[in-house]
Specification:
Layout: H1 2-23, H2 25-36, E1 47-51, H3 57-64, E2 68-73, H4 76-86, E3 91-94, E4 108-113, H5 123-133, E5 134-145, H6 147-153, E6 163-171, E7 174-182, H7 185-195, E8 197-203, H8 208-213, H9 215-223, E9 227-233
Parallel strand pairs: 1-2, 1-4, 2-3, 4-5
Antiparallel strand pairs: 5-9, 6-7, 8-9
Helix pairs in contact: 1-4, 5-7
């Protein structure tokens, strides 16, 4: 599955680099505003890991806010796209979040992970590594698929297990089969609290601007929640 995931995101890298920022309301008017509201505007003197950076949108935003940013992604082509976006302003590596992370203990003040963890079956080892590389009192802020969305997309599979499924994405006239995992809400919360103090769980709402831009999408997201934002602290 990991090989397939890497291949599909390599294939998606150009679309992420050139189109997603401007064409996807689900990013621009839904997930990103919800995540950014949980991140300080002034990140001067903060060291941040962007875990699952894709084409580097969050990497750039965190740099603009003053942070020292290290970004990682499993897709080599996404890594190259992110490098084109930020140049020499940050560090970017091709890293698998299911493996030991190549960073020293207590390296980061904050870990940001946008819509990445649902590609990982076992969060326990990943969160253990996140805890290791965070400083005491450091924060983790991540977004993930809402279980409501996943169970609808997964069809007849059961709710209470962590299960693999494949989602079909249609972008730029192409169809992409994207492998991922769905899990129930209690698994999201319990895995987080094994490693961190839970500070907040936020079910995202679309921006009011989306109501003007695409009322149908706004109404749909208000009745069909797609993403959660979870925030925790290393004690």
């Amino acid at each position: 599955m990991k090989t397939e995931l890497r291949k599909v995101f390599d294939a998606l890298s150009t679309i992420y680099e050139t189109q997603v920022d401007s064409s996807s309301y689900y990013n621009a008017e839904y997930e990103r505003p919800g995540m950014l509201a949980e991140i300080a505007e002034n990140l001067n003197d903060k060291s941040i890991l962007d875990a699952g950076c894709a084409a580097g949108w969050y990497t750039n935003e965190l740099l603009v806010r003053g942070a020292s940013v290290t970004a990682i992604d499993i897709s080599p082509q996404m890594v190259e796209a992110a490098r084109r976006r930020i140049g020499e302003r940050g560090k970017i590596y091709c890293v698998d979040l299911e493996q030991a992370l190549p960073f020293a203990d207590a390296s980061f003040d904050i870990i940001v992970s946008s819509l990445t963890l649902h590609y990982i079956r076992d969060w326990s080892s990943t969160f253990k590594e996140f805890n290791r590389i965070l400083k005491k009192g450091g924060e983790i802020i991540y977004s993930v698929h809402h279980p409501f969305m996943d169970i609808k997309n997964a069809g007849e599979q059961g709710y209470f297990e962590t299960e693999a499924y494949v989602d079909s994405w249609h972008k730029d006239g192409q169809k992409f089969e994207v492998p991922m995992f769905r899990r129930p809400l209690h698994a999201i919360i319990n895995e987080t609290t094994k490693a961190f103090k839970l500070n907040a769980v936020k079910e995202l709402k679309p921006t009011e601007q989306l109501k003007e831009l695409a009322r149908g999408s706004y109404d749909y997201l208000m009745s069909h929640p797609h993403f959660l934002v979870v925030k925790g602290t290393k004690e």
